[in-house]
Amino acid sequence: MRRFDTPVLENRELSRDYRRIEVEWPGDAGTPAPGAFLTVGVSGTTDPLLRRPFAFSGYDPREGRAAFIFQIRGPATRLLSERRPGTVLDVLGPLGSGFPDPAPGSLPVLVGGGIGLGPLVFAAREFRLRAAAGGWEAPVLVLGFRTADQVPALDLPEGSVLCTDDGSAGFRGTAVEAAERAAAGGRYGPDAPPVFYACGPAPMMAALDRRAASLGASYWAAVEQWMACGVGACLGCAVRLKDGSFARACAEGPVFDGTSIDWGAM
Known about the structure:
Elements: E1 2-15, E2 18-24, E3 37-41, E4 52-60, E5 65-71, H1 75-81, E6 88-95, E7 107-113, H2 117-129, H3 131-134, E8 140-145, E9 161-164, E10 171-172, H4 175-183, E11 194-199, H5 202-215, E12 218-222, E13 238-240, E14 246-248, E15 255-257
Parallel strand pairs: 7-8, 7-11, 8-9, 9-10, 11-12
Antiparallel strand pairs: 1-2, 1-6, 2-5, 3-4, 3-6, 4-5, 12-15, 13-14
């Protein structure tokens, strides 16, 4: 982990209110991993005061480029959306824990909702590239959105499933329902047990927890959307666990064993 100033290489619109920024990533800054994140000093002033955390959505070590996807939600992300290529961002990273590899012989099922798409797209690409060598099946990526105008203009991995709440694009229903539908094709079973990865709204994550429990499946959940400062100082990202204890999403996460989280408290 280190802090550095780096130029914006690309800032483009993906869909309504969603953007993707790509920055130059020096080789000595550490290796971004799916599930890990960076923080950005958005304005270079004290307004806004706190840095903003964003999950990595991609990394190309040969080109020295890293990317993140964000949704325009307030003044800070509005300022970020206006950064042009060539301007400089104040970056700190990589931070946090990434997704663990799938177990040999398993089928990775990656489920993303809304702004949770970034780390899942990154993980799906990495897992697909390494599937043969790692001994696991090629992953299934399921992404859910409210409407078609939120579906991002991204080159998604082969076999990806899109769904919308209103049926305006792809499968009509939730991302978890779409994952169930994909599973109905028999892609996992005794010879290819599922391992779930997820990032998105709490109700989606809770539904996937129940599904993983019913199958006795592993479940890894990224909870970076609940982070504030990103460095463990503000305690604004405390996640309640089922044993009654708390963990900080930025310091102990943002990837947790999803079956350990008290989703009802989120």
